[in-house]
Design goal:
alpha+beta, Beta-Lactamase, 5-stranded antiparallel β-sheet, 30 helices, elongated, disordered N terminus, disordered C terminus
Length: 945
């Protein structure tokens, strides 16, 4: 039972068990509980001591906490030092000893006396120059303690005649409250003011009056709104009932304007639980609210502006969560509110969009952060009413320390652009299909018309070599003239097609302007003479003897213009002239004015504006009377524009027409002139052609007869074949010096026959294409098939013999081809005319470019070999793409089709066809390289190469 009494078990409401073992367990549990309570109390005590020590330490001066009997309970460091210097054990003795004055320290009166006199106040101003502040407080055990504070007061020499009464003075703390930048008021339980600082009420008389009055009386006295007192009373009661602080905002109208106050009621309760006081605090937050309103207005303004933008705008935090999105990005206002703080995975799940899109966005976000720069990509939303395409941009923004701050995303709706691009692609395919159809039509038309035209002109030439009566000769001339006119129309159509496609290529060779005009006069002399018209040419004496340009195209324009003048002139004549125009041309160049003037019927003024339109003539009567297609002038104007000039036309009805154009041409030298090919009967070339054996493969009997006759008259032995299969049989049985191969033939056409001759028979005999298809690209196609040269039908006798001689008598170097559009030199595998034009005739530049081409081509061959070995179609296509510009600049036409095919290869690497294509390119490119290296080693580059 002693143990029970010791543990105070009698006062424990729980009855202990009677069993000893159970009782022991119960007692141990109870003891453990008491130990926990004790530990908690000790912890609270230590916490209180720590707080008290901290409070004493931060207070200025020497601070000591004394018990009622004067014993030191706690002190700060300065107070301890002061106490240790007194060499006394208690504070009262220490004070008496220190100040050498009689001192009483009585717990009952809580009064400090000095020299037997008591003075109301809280400060003792001692003669030693120290100020003693004394206050009292209730200690933790319920006893009364005193807080002694000693502060130096230099310059003070007054006697210590002050005393402290039993209640501490509020002067110190009141000073603090008065200096606070907030309103402070204290109310009693009856809502009456007990204290208010100067911040709360500025007027001292009002502060004195308000003590003991409540807010209703205050508002009535100073004519404040009654609602103010009602609101404060409600908040007072709320704080009292909830026993917690209450805050509210109060709006007051003042002379300075509306004032916004943030007020608090903090209830303070006595130990018995009753309300001791209510502390009110008021803070003027007018500026804060104005700033917040300004920020809110600015935010609303910026959000309004962003919402009006026609693009999506979104701002994301460092975890890729939405901070803001405008109305264009998410149109639903509720969804815009919901998405803030959420990422794209949550947003896409909410809107039931594919999670793959969220993965893609997340990957783009990570890429932007990784690259630390703007990232763009396209995003497609699938919708029932049509797909929506967005062009997205992600711009990361970083903190100064390099960490991610936010990501600014914006997107442009490019649905219309995508739709337009698709439409353009379809239109492009349709246009390309139309172009292919037109090219096919032109090719067929060229072939179908040129084939009989070749027979007509050829037979006419053969007929002219026979004895004819004057009447028969006139018939022959009529046939030839009609055929020539028809051929001009065909060439006009083909030239128009080339010009529209931008495939017309100009030459840059030397020519004599006087010789050029003489050719024009010679060509049109008989036509003018037939109509009884004069045709004169006039050359400016100051014109350079040699100019650089495209003499064939200039001649074509002059022939067309002069031919029109003769056609539309009934009497008088035509004058063709050229002269130098002083128009400030650079050194080494001249401006040459070409003019064609006639005395013809002229043109009505209203028609002049439409004269250069295609298929356009003044009226139907012109076509009936004079003929023509209306293509001549448009073609002339396009050709002149291609050469850097423009055609100008002046005309007056029944007073003639003047047509002129000006070209800026470089001045050349005699070395720039091309030697003219002449094949008289006693020409050495004809001597060398004798007894050469030629295989003529042609399905048209008339064309075969014409070519055979031209060749046999030059003592050339001719063997005929009507199709490609027969040519293969003959080539197996006989050896030929040259093969003339028609393209379009039955059984086996020219392309198939050439391939079989090259691949199956491994034949190296030169093969010259004879084709009626003169459109752009046909020559390259023939060369790509393995042919060595190209001759367009209809052809003249001299042209045929010249092409044949170039391959069967290559040592005859004195004969060079004329600059004719229907005849392209076949012997050289490349041309330097374009390089000469770019380098303005500088041969060293041409040499350098040829050496560079050889070097880059060697590298290309290595790349092709490596790409073929690795089966890397991307490398092969890249190499082909790199080769194309150089081949075009050197006019290596026979190699371009194969290179283009490899460059545009679709699909994966296919060993069979790709290997064949690469082998073809490699073989032909080596031939070009070998020819260039040989030319560079033997002789300097010339303009005629």
């Amino acid at each position: 039972m002693a143990a029970v009494e010791l543990l105070d078990l009698k006062n424990n409401p729980a009855t202990p068990p009677t069993d000893e073992r159970a009782w022991r367990a119960w007692a141990e549990s109870h003891i453990a509980g008491l130990q926990e309570t004790l530990a908690a109390a000790q912890q609270q005590a230590r916490l209180a001591e720590a707080r008290l020590a901290g409070l004493l330490e931060i207070m200025p001066g020497s601070n000591l906490l004394l018990s009622a009997d004067g014993q030191t309970v706690a002190a700060n460091q300065s107070g301890l030092e002061w106490l240790s210097n007194t060499e006394e054990t208690d504070c009262a003795t220490a004070l008496q000893h220190h100040f050498q004055q009689p001192t009483e320290f009585t717990a009952q009166t809580r009064q400090f006396r000095a020299n037997g006199k008591s003075v109301r106040g809280t400060e003792l101003l001692l003669a030693t120059g120290q100020v003693v502040e004394l206050d009292y407080l209730i200690l933790g055990d319920g006893s009364v303690g005193h807080l002694l504070r000693l502060q130096p007061q230099p310059g003070t020499a007054l006697p210590a005649q002050l005393a402290v009464e039993q209640e501490a003075s509020p002067a110190f703390y009141e000073t603090i409250l008065q200096e606070l930048p907030v309103e402070v008021a204290v109310f009693d339980a009856q809502h009456r003011y007990r204290f208010v600082n100067t911040k709360g009420i500025l007027d001292a008389a009002t502060r004195a009056w308000v003590i003991g009055h409540d807010d209703f009386e205050y508002c009535a006295q100073f004519q404040r709104p009654q609602e103010l007192a009602v609101q404060r009373r409600q908040c007072f009661e709320q704080a009292l009932q909830t026993r917690t602080a209450v805050a509210w905002e109060e709006i007051q109208e003042t002379a300075a304007g509306r004032q916004c106050m943030l007020r608090h009621f903090l209830p303070v309760f006595s130990p018995d639980g009753s309300l001791h006081m209510m502390v009110g605090i008021g803070e003027d937050i007018t500026e804060r609210r104005q700033a917040e309103k300004q920020l809110a207005d600015q935010r609303a303004f910026y959000e309004f502006v962003l919402d009006q933008l026609p693009c999506d705008v979104g701002v994301f935090d460092h975890q890729f969560r939405y901070l803001f999105v405008n109305a264009s990005g998410i149109k639903d206002p509720e969804m815009r509110k919901w998405v803030i703080g959420r990422d794209n995975y949550e947003y896409f799940a909410r809107t039931q969009r594919p999670v793959a899109m969220a993965h893609e966005r997340h990957a783009q976000f990570q890429l932007a952060v990784q690259e630390r720069s703007l990232v763009t990509y396209e995003e497609t939303f699938l919708r029932p009413d049509g797909d929506r395409h967005q062009y997205r941009c992600l711009q990361p923004v970083f903190h100064p320390d390099g960490s991610l701050h936010m990501i600014l995303g914006y997107g442009l709706d490019v649905t219309e652009r995508v739709a337009t691009e698709r439409a353009l692609r379809h239109a492009k395919l349709a246009a390309e299909s139309a172009v292919r159809a037109r090219e096919l039509f032109l090719a067929n038309m060229s072939h179908e018309i040129r084939t009989p035209m070749n027979a007509i002109l050829g037979m006419s030439q053969l007929l002219a070599k026979t004895p004819l009566t004057p009447t028969q000769s006139s018939y022959q001339q009529a046939i030839t003239t009609s055929a020539d006119n028809l051929l001009v129309i065909i060439n006009d159509i083909l030239d128009l097609s080339k010009l529209e496609a931008g495939k017309m290529v100009l030459e840059q060779v030397g020519f004599g302007p006087a010789h050029l005009l003489a050719q024009v006069e010679q060509t049109l002399h008989y036509k003018a003479a037939e109509k009884g018209l004069y045709l004169n040419t006039q050359v400016d004496p100051g014109l350079p003897a040699v100019l650089l340009g495209d003499p064939y195209r200039i001649t074509q324009v002059l022939l067309n213009l002069a031919g029109n003048s003769i056609k539309f002139t009934e009497k008088g004549g035509v004058l063709v002239s050229c002269e130098v125009v002083d128009a400030g041309a650079p050194e080494g160049q001249v401006d040459v004015l070409f003019r064609v003037a006639d005395t013809g019927i002229g043109i009505e003024p209203q028609f002049l504006a439409h004269i250069f339109q295609e298929f356009s003539q003044e009226d139907a009567s012109v076509t009936r009377k004079f003929g023509g297609t209306g293509l001549g002038l448009p073609i002339c104007r396009n050709l002149v524009k291609l050469m850097g000039g423009d055609v100008q036309l002046e005309s007056e009805k029944h007073r003639g027409t003047i047509t002129q154009f000006t070209l800026r041409l470089p001045v050349g030298t005699a070395q720039d002139l091309l030697p003219q090919a002449q094949l008289p009967e006693d020409s050495p070339l004809r001597q060398h052609l004798r007894h050469k054996h030629v295989l003529l493969v042609e399905d048209n009997r008339f064309n075969r007869q014409i070519a055979k006759t031209f060749l046999q008259q030059a003592q050339v032995q001719v063997t005929e074949a009507v199709h490609g299969a027969e040519a293969l049989t003959l080539a197996k049985e006989q050896t030929f010096d040259l093969i003339l191969m028609d393209i379009q033939m039955p059984i086996l056409d020219g392309y198939g026959a050439t391939e079989a001759l090259r691949q199956q028979l491994q034949l190296t005999t030169p093969i010259i294409a004879l084709t009626a298809n003169a459109i752009k690209g046909e020559r390259e196609k023939c060369l790509a098939a393995g042919m060595n040269g190209y001759l367009a039908k209809p052809f003249q006798e001299a042209e045929l013999l010249r092409v044949v001689s170039e391959w069967v008598v290559p040592q005859v170097e004195a004969v060079a081809p004329e600059p004719d559009s229907t005849l392209c030199p076949a012997l050289p595998l490349y041309q330097t005319s374009e390089l000469l034009k770019v380098g303005q005739g500088d041969l060293s530049f041409v040499t350098f470019m040829l050496e560079t081409f050889v070097e880059s081509s060697e590298e290309a061959l290595q790349e092709l070999a490596q790409g073929q070995k690795e089966g890397n179609i991307a490398k092969l296509k890249s190499t082909a793409h790199t080769l194309k510009p150089s081949l075009a600049h050197l006019h290596v036409w026979h190699l371009l089709p194969a290179v283009t095919e490899l460059d545009q290869w679709q699909g994966e690497f296919q060993a069979g066809p790709v290997t064949t294509l690469v082998s073809t390119i490699t073989q032909r490119l080596r031939e070009v390289i070998s020819q260039i290296q040989k030319a560079l080693a033997e002789a300097p580059v010339s303009a005629t190469e």
